[in-house]
Amino acid sequence: MIAEEIKKIHALLPPGVELCAVSKFHPAEAVRQAYDAGQRIFGESRVQELLEKVKVLPGDIKWHFIGHLQTNKVRQLIGKVSLIESVDSERLLDLIDKESEKAGVVTRVLMQLHVAREETKFGFYPEELLEYFSNRKFENLNATHICGVMGMASNTEDMNRVREDFRLIAATKDRIMKIAPDLMGFDIVSMGMSGDWPLAVEEGANLVRIGTAIFGSRNY
Ligand SMILES: *Cc1c(COP(=O)(O)O)cnc(C)c1O
Question: Residue 85 in contact with residue 66, Cβ under 8 Å?
Answer without folding.
Answer: yes
